[in-house]
Each structure stands twice: as structure tokens, then as C-alpha cells.
Amino acid sequence: MPCLFRRLLSLILVGSLTSVLLADGPFVPRRQSALPGPPLSPEEAAAKMTVPPGFSVEVVAAEPDLVNPVAMAFDDQGRIWVTESLEYPRHSPGPGRDRVKVLEDTDGDGKVDKTTIFADGLNIPSGIAVGYGGVWVANAPDILFLQDTDGDLKADKRRVVVTGFGRRDTHELPNSLTWGPDGALYGLNGVFNPSHVEQNGKTFDFTCAMFRIDPRTDEFSLFCEGTSNPWGIAFDPEGSAFVSACVIDHLWHLTETGYYHRQGGPYPPFTWKIESIVNHKHQMAAYCGIEYFDSDAYPPKYRDRLYMGNIHGACINVDEVTRDGSTYLGNPHPDFLTANDVWHMPVDQKIGPDGCLYILDWYDRYHCYQDAMARPADVDRLKGRLYRIRYKDAPRAEPFDLAKEEDEELIERLSSSNRFYRDRAQRLLSEREPSAYDMLTKLAVDPTAPRKTRLHAIWAVAGYQCPGDGFLIELVDDPDPTIRAWGIRIAGNFQVASEVLRAKIITAASDPSPDVQLQAVIAAGKIHKIPAMPTLLTALAAAGDDKLIPHIVWQNLHPLLETDSGQLFELLQDRNLATNPNVAALLPRVIDRILAAPNVETDSIIQLVKLVAETPKLHSALISSLATLAARVQSGEISGDRLAAIRSQLEPVLQPILAAGDKHPAYFDAALLAVTWKNAQAQAAVRAAYRSGDTPDDKRSAALAALVAFGDDQIVPAVRDVLLSKPPTSQQLQADSIAALGKLDQPQVATMLLDAYPQLPSDLQPKALEVLTQRVDWSTQLLAAVAAEKIAKEALNINQVGRLQESPDSEVVAKSIQVWGQIRTKRNPERELVIADMRRLLRSRDGDPHAGAAAFQKLCGQCHKIYGQGQEVGPDITTNGRGSFEQLLSSVFDPSLVIGPDYQGRLVLTADGRTLTGLMVEDNEQRVVLKLQGGKLETIPRDDVEAIRVSQLSLMPEGLEKQLSEQELIDLFAYLSLTRPPSDPNAEFIPGAQAIDVDQLHLPASLTNELATAQLSSNATKLGKGARGEAGDLAYLPNKRSFLKNSQWHEVGVGGGADLGIVSESDPVYYQATWETPVAINLITLSGAYPNQPQADAAWKIEVRSGGDWRVLDRGVGGWYDHGRYVWGAPGTAATTIDGFRVSLFSRDDQTPLRSVHFRGEEGVSWFIGNAPADVEITSD
């Protein structure tokens, strides 16, 4: 692999991306490495796209007929319905300027030639579907049903179907309205868009979820929950649902009642999350839209694949899904389309009536919502495109109107090779209700009919009424497992079944097909009189190594344990069932769930523990069950009378295990539990285990947790020995030992930690401070140590100081304010200056990414995961927060600039005097679970929670630049700036990450410098003539209109001697250039005008004027690079028009005078401002 961060003779953008002040000035969007350049015309954009051989890109519609398109749907005549949004990213609800538009090709040439505004007054309409006599539109907070009652293609009737969707995050609104195979309307909602729907006495509180609406009754329900910001639903020919999602893994198979991995935020209690179906990634990207391609308009190799819009990649990614038990596995294929144009934003993909893939393009310079939120005025509101990807001379669709076709014609359409017709014919047959019932049911059970045809016939019947019992029994008896599965699913949807059908569904729980088993599990909880618990356990036992079924069983089983745990114990008397590996693996979760019930009977717990203890095949389950019990006791969730009752009944069970000692596989875990009620034998054994270097680290940590839980008075000296042992024990054990002490309310904890602090490795010192700031007594001792300068006040991060200032003790608060001042409770806008400084530092020289990997694990890995390594407290940054070098800078040095609600820190005050900060994992009636720094979960019984406060700041503390040396920072960013681990030969830089060699920034004199025509001025009145000397770069002499290797210093004041006093930012010292006629520029280099010789603490800012307003382009403190050079822009990028440019110098604060200022160059100017073409070579001549 070539040397990373090699010195390049190229200029790349270093302008500030974090300053939201520059509303109209030059700006490089996130995920892009340079200015986006001018937009292409629709025809130019299509011609620039790369598609496989034989394919071509055709423009179907474009501006002005189509602007800011968000979603589309084809109707039964092949017309295209599109939602347009001029309001994005507006948060407030209410009427807006957005609309639904109908696009028509009236002459059959493949291009839209007629547009009609169907509805307006909308506010970010984010999803659309046509059917059941009207148009369904997601227009948060509502799902609307719009109708045209007089045939003029104008909506004259509007009804709110469902309301309660949030608008907190307007790029995560309800979206992707899609007709499902069962006839319901499906949609999605995002993780940072909390929603609250009330309907028919039911309440639905949710964030990321797939929802379902019955188009006949308007009944709303949640199909499943989880993922991130899913945007796009596709159903395969078997009716399975797939969605594409952002930030986390991109492809998910969603199943009813499932709960999937969340990007952020707390899970409901007892959730056993389901993961994605991919082990690969495409470009680091945001996904929008997904379509399962099933049409003969393309060659076979392009069919039966999922086509996904990749916004950041400006392309269409492709995955193929293959069966993996009851779920799927996604496998990557080459991109289908690459736009080669950063403005391209594919937001929706659909198969059209001609069988081709249609791609809706928002077409804007801003891919990322963060840019749109920071600069809403710059969102392009005048463009939008719709493309068709055509294979060779694939014929265009002839005119049609499916709604006018007879039932027999529509039934024939169910066998079409283009799913466009199959899907719409199915829905229309459902809308017509019983007219085609007999023909459809006959076709559905015909074994000679094509499988796809049979399924569509089944779905058409299921879409409008509950089929007859006999029909469903025929389906459940069918040889085809997919048909059997759908028979059960339909019965579950209608929640009714005869005794015969119920018996068949119960039997289906052990069907050879995992698909059938899965649907039996889901139906068991929906159909009255099906014994749910035995059916669930039967399916679990029959599931083998299926990845999905155990999760769905658990999701449906655990609510039953709230009130009927006794039934489970009776079922487990069947030893064949109890010892089944899947059932045994679930028993620890079962025990944990029963323990959480508000009125749990301890008999149920004891019976289960006895069962696993007396069954040798269940010893692994016994170990896990004892660990679960111990964890509940140690957290305080089981205490008092409940603990006493459990102890009295469990001691006889544990005694033989304890007596057997190490000969019993569950001995250690039995001892951990017995320690909590001070069993002397167990105490001795657990103390010895913690102290022994022969005990594995994980067991030593578990031993310490048990000893701390019952307040062992010998534990603090034992921890000191571990921390200071020679040779040292593992740092992970030491870290766990320090963290465990937080639960031990003893003053000697602080005394020991403070005494040991100077001898602790630097990696462990912050962990000691983390504990010392959790209790009043410890905080008092810590503040005394800081006052005595035994611990530097800079050693505490902002979260730790924040805990001191949130202390329930007023003296601790007052003393901490004395030391650190009142800390901010909101984002510090001065972080922009830090980013500017860090940008210059990190571009100044090479870094070692291998050393950076070590730095990451040491510091960042306590909360973040990358390439599978580290803790997952905050986001996994493998694909998040590193879309470009500028986004990375912002994520690291200004973590509170953009923060999702679920990543806001929580400060919890406990009844026993602890103050904890972390991210919320669970928050319910039983308990609060926080994820602390390092990934440790802290469980607090709800009764022990005094208060919970939500921080407006990220849990990630500011000030990383103070915790690492310059070289460590450079190394860390060398690592973070790669798309893959540094050992991977395919590793590349993220956009904008290459280093700049400031010694090689030389421009050829042939370039046109716009300063030649500028009016130059300054408010500096005391300019010394300075001395001429050889400069490291070429100075431009505007009065001579030439470049010169020699340059001249000019001074305001005398270096180190004069004092200009406090110079305010509102009245700075400046040099400026202005033009009567605006000039187009794409490159700025400044070889002088920097205050770091000799004063490194002066502040500066660079401004440009456009449209009469001065806007901040960049700002910082000290010099912009090691040698005073500043670069903005790059040759060949799009030009920006300005009519003014200014550099200002001023005091960084009200206590730092401006002592001297240096400007280099004849007449005070040696700047280049111009428009450099792409082929400009940067030379050293």
C-alpha cells in the first residue's frame, strides 16, 4: 500500500464547513470532497451516467415540470404520481407549499408532456400510494386520503386517516407508503422521529418502525420495530418484506412482531434484538428507496435482485437475497448505475408498466440533512428528474387502463412476467370484493398454476375479506410451504379460525418448513383459542439452528410470562422439551422476565432453577440462570422480602452445588449468588477467586461485582492490590475493578483511589476520576486533591465536571464552580475555532494510521466501535460520522453540533447518593439501564431513581485536543480518515482527507489573479516598511501584476514590544479586496497575514462578500499552517462569485491584547484569489 498521508502537490479544500454563518458563501457539503460544481442539465446528467452494457438512461421528466420530488407511485393507467416538497427541511406542521403532481406521457414517446397539480397546501409529503378510490399521502403528522370525486384530476375531498406522527426530524418522517401482499398499506418511520398515534382506544408510541393500515377500516397497527431511518419497502415474490436503512447496516428482512437493532435510543424491556441480513457494505452511504426487480424487460442476470438508491454514493446499489432458514442473506452485486454527478440523489425506484426501472432524483448539492438544516436557504428548490433505465430497444407500454378491465382480464394479468401488472391487478380484484371470489379461490389452489400466479390470487382474496374456512384449510394443507405459510398468516390477520384450522396451525408449529413454523408462531398470539405458550415452545424446539424463529418466539412469549409463568413450568416437565437446545438457551431470559413481574411468585423461579439444577443436560442453562438471578440481586432489583423468600427456598438447591466445589460446573455461579446473602463459604471462595491471578479475568470481575453488592469490608484493599500489582494485571480487569467500586458506598474508596492515582497508568486515571465524581463524599475528597494540585484540574473531562456541578451537595457545586467556572449546558459555539485549528494541524504533516488505531482503542474505543472493535455506547463509526474529512472534524471536536435525541446524555441521581451519566438503554416501570463510558451497563431499580435529567450535550466530551499530543491527534486522524483498516490494501482516504505539504504550495505566475483588478484597502495605520527576504512561496505583487520570489514584511506594532490593546472582533485590524464587478473564484491562497509570528494567541477570520453581505468563510486562533500559508478551494472545482474578500485580526478574548500583526507582500498583499482550471500544475518554481 502506498505511504499513507503522503505529501501531495495538490490543493484540496480546507474551508470551514462548520460555520453556519456562511449562508450564501462557498461551502462543501458533507460526504463530498470539493465544491459540488454547477448542476448538469437533465440530458447532460443522463449522458454522464454509467450503466451496464446494453442499457441506456432516458429522461422521463425534469424541471420545470418536476421539482424537489420525494416519492412516486404509478396508477392503473401508468400515470406517475409524485410528491414535491419546497418546504423541506421545515419542522413546523400546518399548511405548506408542497403538492402532489400527476405526470403523463400522452403521445407515447416515453417523455412526460402533461402535468397536473392534484393537491397542494401540503408540508413535506413523504410517501404516496394510489388505490381504493383515492390517493394516500404521508404528510406528517397525518396520513391523508385524497379523492377526486368529479373526475377533473383535482383532489376535492381530504380525510385524515391516521394522525400523531412526529416532525422532530424531518428527514425521518413517515415514508414509503407501499401496498403489501396482504392488501394492507405499509409505511416506515425513523428513529429520531417520536410518534404517538391514538386510535380506537389503543395507543401506539414508537420511533423507528414499519406500520400497517387497513385501507377498508383505517385500522392502524405496528408490524415491527427497529432499524434506523428506513426509507423504502420492497416485497419479494413470496411476500417477504425488505427495507433499506441509513447509518447502520443497509438491508433488513422485516417480520411481524420482530424487534430489530436500533441505531440509537432505548429498547423496550426484555427485547432480544434481531440483526440485519448483510455482512457487507457498499459505499459509506445513506439509502433511499428499494425495489425488488421482477420483470422480463431486463436480461435474467438483472432480475430477482434488490435495487437500492444510494444518496451519498450517487448510485444504485444491488443485492441479491438467498434463503437462510426463515430469513434471508443479502449478497452484493456490482452497482447498476453510477451517476458520476454529486448532485444526483436517487430517492425512489419503481418498476414501470414497460418493465423498466424508473429512478426519481431529488437532484441537489446537499446530500446530508445536516447541511440542509444548517443552510435551508441553499437547498435547491428548482430541480428534479425522473429517469428510465432501458435495456436496448425494450418496447414502451401501450396505453391501458386496468380499472376498466374485466375480472377475467385482471386474473390473466396475475400471470404477467412484469410484476407491475400482477401487483395492480391483484389490488383491483381486492377492491372489487366478491365479484371474482370463486375464480380466484379456484386459481389459488390449482397445483398446476404458476406459483407466482397462485400467490397473487391468494393475496387478492385476502385483501378484501376473510376467506372461508375451507379455503384456508386447503392452503394450510398445500404441498408448497410458501402457500401453507400464507394460509396461516391470513388466518392470523383476520384473527379467526375454526377448531379444525386451529388444530392445523398448532401442528404447523413443527412443520418441516421454517417459513411455516414462523407464521404459526405469529398466528398463535393472534387467534383466539390457540394455546399460545405450548405452540410457541413447540416451534422453538423444532427450529433447529434457524436464526430468526427464536427471536420471534421470545417476542411473543415474554408478555405471557407476566401472568402465566406457572404454565411454562408445567410444560417444561416434559424433559424432552426442557432439554431441547433452543428451549434451554431461552431459560435464562425466562427467569429474568419472571423476576421482573410486579407480583412474581417466587415458587415459579425456584421451580425453574430446581428443574435446571436437577437435569444434567441443562447445566449450561443453570449457569446462565444463576448469573441472571445474581445480576438482579446485585442491581438491587431483588431485595427485602423477595430476596429473603428466594433465599429460603433456593439455599437447599444451592447447597449440594456449593458442597461439590469445583467439581460442579455451576459452583462458581452458585457461589456468586450465595455471596449476596453472606454465605460464609461462598464469601471465602469468591474473595479467593478475585485475588487469584490464576482465575480468568471475566470471573475475577464477576467475583468483585458480587463482593461489592453485599458491601464486603475487605474488598477495597483487594482492589488496591489489583491496581498496583507487580507485574500489573490486565488493564481490563483493573478498569472493571475501578468501575465496580462505584456501587460501594464507603469513604475509603476515594481515599484508596486518590492514593493510587499517581501510580495508575494514564489509561486508567480517567476511570478513577469517573468513579470519584459519583458520590458526594468522594467528590469532596477529589476537590481537595485538585485544590492541593495533586490532580490537575484539566484531568477531568466536561462530563465529570458536570456531575460535580449537578451534585446534590451545594458545597461540592460551589467548589467545582470555583475551580472550573460554570460549565456550559449547551453547545459551545467556540468549538468552530477549535475545528479550524485542528484542521490546520491535522493537514500539516503525515500521520501513522497504525499508531492511530492504538490511540483509538485507548480513548475513543471506550464508547465507539470501528471495524468491529471497541464498545458500542455511541454510534458505530465504521459507517457513521466519517463521510468526509470535514464531517469527521465536526464529529470529533464539536460532538454536540448535531446530536440525535437518543444520543443525548442522561444524568441519573440515585437514592443512595450516586450521580451517573450515560446513554439510556432501558427506561420502564421496573428499572433504568444506562450504558456508561466503556460500554458497561448500569441497572438501577426504578424505586432507587431520584431524578433523571436530559443533557443538551453529547455524552462524548469536548476537548479531545487537550487529552492527546499533537502527534497522537495526527496519528488518530490518519486512522480515522481511511475507509478501511490500514492493513487493508484497498483502504482509501475519505473525501478531503489527504494531507497538504505546505512547503509545496506554489502557483504558476501564468494564473490570472483577480486581485489585479481589486481595490485594496486596510484600516491599519502603522505599517513598517519591513525588510525584504527570500520567501518560501511566490508573492503576488498587485501593483506590478506579477509574482516575485522575494517578499517584504510589514508590521503593525513591533514584535513582542508594542501593545495594540484589546482589539474586538467587531472592530478588527483588516486588509481587504473589493471588486466593482463580481469575480468568479475557486482557489484562494494566502502566504501572509498571519499572527503567529510572534503572537500565537491572536484570533483571525476570513470573510467573503456576496450579494452585499459579508460572510465568515473561516476563522481560528494562531497561524493557519506551520508556515503561515492558507489554502481554500481546489483547481477545477466549481467557481463561486464574490465581490469582496477580507482578512481580520483581533483579540481572542477580552484579556488577550493584540501585540503585533504581520502582513507579508508588497503593499501589504501577497494573496492569490482566482479561478484555476483543473489542469493547473502546482510547481515549486
Label the overall shape. Answer: flat
Q: Which architecture of one domain per CATH?
A: 6 Propeller
> What is the CATH C level class of one domain, in words?
Mainly Beta
What name is given to the CATH topology of one domain? Neuraminidase
Largest sheet: 5 strands, mixed
Number of helices: 33
Beta-strand fraction estimate: 15-25%
Specify Rg, calculated over alpha carbons: 34 Å
Distance between the termini: 30 Å
Query: So, the CATH homologous superfamily of one domain?
Result: TolB, C-terminal domain
Helical proportion, percent range? 25-40%
- Supply the helix-strand structural class: alpha+beta
Low-confidence runs (pLDDT<50, min 5 residues)? 1-27, 1023-1039, 1041-1056, 1088-1094, 1160-1165
Description of the structure:
By secondary structure, this protein is of the alpha+beta class. Among the domains are: 55-89 and 168-391, Neuraminidase; 402-454, no CATH class; 998-1170, Jelly Rolls. The protein contains 33 helices and 44 strands. A five-stranded mixed sheet has the order 10-11-14-15-19. Strands 32-31-30-29-33 form a five-stranded antiparallel sheet, with no helix packed on it. A five-stranded antiparallel sheet has the order 34-37-42-39-40. Strand 12 (195-199) and strand 13 form a beta hairpin. Helix 18 (640-660) runs antiparallel to helix 19. The longest helix is centred in the middle third of the chain and has 21 residues, at 640-660. The radius of gyration is 34 Å and the shape is flat. The model is unreliable at 1-27, 1023-1039, 1041-1056, 1088-1094 and 1160-1165 (pLDDT under 50).
